[in-house]
Amino acid sequence: MTLARPTLRIATYNIHSCRGLDGRTRPQRTAAVLRDIDADIIALQEVIGPGANSGGHAEELGAALGMGWVMAPTRQVRGHQFGNAVLSRLPIVSHSAHELRWQHTQTRCVQRVDFEVAGRPFHVYNVHLGTSILERRHQSTKVAKIVVESDVKGAKIVLGDFNEWLRGIATRALSASLKSLDLSHYIGRKATFPGLLPVLHLDHIYFDGAIEFTSVTVVRNRFSTMASDHLPVVANIVL
Questions:
Q1: Euclidean distance between CA atoms 177 and 208, whole angstroms
Q2: By three-state DSSP, how is residue 57 classified?
Q3: What is the side-by-side strand order in the sheet with 41-51?
Q4: Structural domains in the chain, sorted by start
Q5: Residue 148: what pLDDT?
Q6: Residue 142: what are its φ and ψ, rounded to 5°?
Q7: Rounded to whole angstroms, how far apart are CA atoms 231 and 13?
Q8: What is the pLDDT of residues 80-133, one digit of tens each?
Q9: How far apart (Å, rounded) are the C-alpha atoms in residues 237 and 239?
Q10: pLDDT band at 196 (very low <50, low <70, confident <90, very high)
Q11: How does DSSP assign 104-153, residue by residue?
């Protein structure tokens, strides 16, 4: 008897603080995009999290989708945490964050969220790198070291906004240690930024361990093209 291998639907999406290209901040529109994606695990960047009197957009999106969430803040924005967040239908075993700040640039981080799928460990690394080349060189090298040289066992997927549209310093550093997912094998157009008329491929996926990708899509519809300055990337995987 052959046991069925577990399948998951995973997404990465820079939600731009739920502020759309029309200048309106509408978490409910972002929730509509995510609801249509119907993913099990969603890595989000540029998320407004908890403040003194509310859970921010992280809590609002989690409630709208019926998903649990964990936040990895990098700084404060108008009294609220701001940074990366992971939404999940699966129970979250543990989570942590590693700071990626370089010199005097804006604080960034890689968020690690741990799961157990069919009795085996599975780890998601939610990344948002900086905009300058030297900054990304430092950050990508650190991310690769965190993912590969740690004592964390099990399959790992590293995804997010890498702010790199050509095969540059960050791509080379990460590809030296991790497997890189080539979106062009699955889709004709892999650009994800800006949302309305995407011309740059900023959102990437890397992985390590026994992960098989069965399909990958960049979600481009009437909601996603306006809800953020990025488009979501969605992958169906088999562990």
A1: 9
A2: helix
A3: 68-77, 80-88, 41-51, 7-14, 233-238, 212-218
A4: 8-234 (3.60.10.10)
A5: 87
A6: -70, -40
A7: 7
A8: 999 999 999 999 999 999 999 777 777 889 999 999 999 999 999 999 998 888
A9: 7
A10: low
A11: TSPP-EEEEEEEEETTEEEEEEEEE--SSHHHHHHHHHHHHHHHHSSS--
